[in-house]
Structures are given as structure tokens and as C-alpha cells.
Amino acid sequence: MDLAKYIRDIPDFPRPGIIFKDITPLLAEPHAFQEAIERFGTHYRGKPIDAIAAAEARGFLFAAPLALNLNKPLIPLRKPGKLPYRTYALKYELEYGTAELQVHIDGVHPGARVLLVDDLLATGGTMQAGSQLIEKAGGKVAGFAFLVELMFLKGREKLGAYEIFSLMQV
């Protein structure tokens, strides 16, 4: 199945000059969505992964079903004020300002190998921050998984020597 046909380009969103990769057509087709999760599962099944983590919000769409597929715990990385228990926090820079991610202090078991999942790899800033937060919480980054990778933005350069797996590269 050609998953790329389920990714829609939206020109000039969220601002002029940007071509937004819209994943909602893939989410709207259960067979395509299932195929994406199965491909992730096939790639990661049997690898030394203890948990799956994702930053809100679109990363949750792929991390949650993948965690079920692999029978692994899901670790949500949330924006400030969204998690009810004590948290570790990490502020980071974006192209257009700053952001923060948080994780429960008991969300990552010491030494756990955590796969970080997101819908799209662009500049890599959010996943770089996610990996730093996982390490701050006592885990180890097992790698990164993305539905789509925008190669021209070179986001993988920010993610160090970890394995990066993308279902589609454009």
C-alpha cells in the first residue's frame, strides 16, 4: 500500500511559504492507518524497547496504537499543566518561540529504553527535547519513529546517533 497517497499537502499553512503535510486523510482510512501501525510494529517487534513515548498531540495518534501493538507502556510527554502528578519539565526553543514538555516523575522507569514516536520529523526540535526529557527522567532513548520525514529540513541531524525510522521520506 502506498501510504503517501493518504498524506495531503496544504499550501501556505500555518503561514505563507509552508507546505503542511496533513495526516488526517490517513487517519480517516482505517486500512491505511492500520497499515502504518503494522509497519511500525514489524520494524520494532523484538527490538530492545521497554516503552513508547510521544509528545502531544499528533504523536499520540501513532504512539498509542503502536504501544498496544508491541505490548509496551505509553509515556505521554505533555504541555505544562496537563499532567496531574509531579513532573520533570524541559523548556526548549522552537523556530517561533519556546515550548515546554513534561513527564510524570514515575513515568519512566530507571534505565528503560524508550522509543519516541511522532507523526512528522521536520526540524527535530520537539523530539530532541523529548529525548532530553526521557534522559532527565532516568530513561535511555532507544530511537525515533516517524510517519513522515521532511528530508530537506535535516531534522535527523539534531537527533544524534540514535536510530531514526520513517515510514515515508519526502
Provide a concise account of the structure shown:
This protein has 170 residues and is an alpha/beta fold. It has helices spanning 24-28, 30-44, 58-70, 125-136; strands at 8-11, 19-22, 51-55, 74-77, 87-94, 97-104, 113-121, 140-149, 164-169.
Question: Can you give a write-up of this model?
Answer:
The protein is of the alpha/beta class. It has one domain (48-169): Rossmann fold. The protein is 26% helix and 34% strand. The strands form three sheets. The chain has a five-stranded parallel β-sheet with strand order 4-3-7-8-9, with helices on both faces. A two-stranded antiparallel sheet has the order 1-2. A two-stranded antiparallel sheet has the order 5-6.
The strand count comes to: 9
Helix content: 25-40%
Q: Over all CA atoms, what is the radius of gyration?
A: 15 Å
Number of helices: 4
CATH class designation: Alpha Beta
Residue share in β-strands: 25-35%
Q: Segments where pLDDT lies below 50 for 5+ residues?
A: none
- Kindly name the structural category: alpha/beta
Task: Give a quick account of the main beta sheet: strands, pairing sense, barrel closure.
Answer: 5 strands, parallel
Terminus-to-terminus distance: 17 Å
The best one-word shape is globular
N-to-C SSE string, H for helix and E for strand:
EEHHEHEEEEHEE
User: Strands of the largest sheet, in order across it?
Assistant: 4-3-7-8-9
The CATH topology corresponds to Rossmann fold
CATH architecture: 3-Layer(aba) Sandwich
- Number of self-contained structural domains: 1
Instruction: Report mean pLDDT, rounded to a whole number.
Output: 96
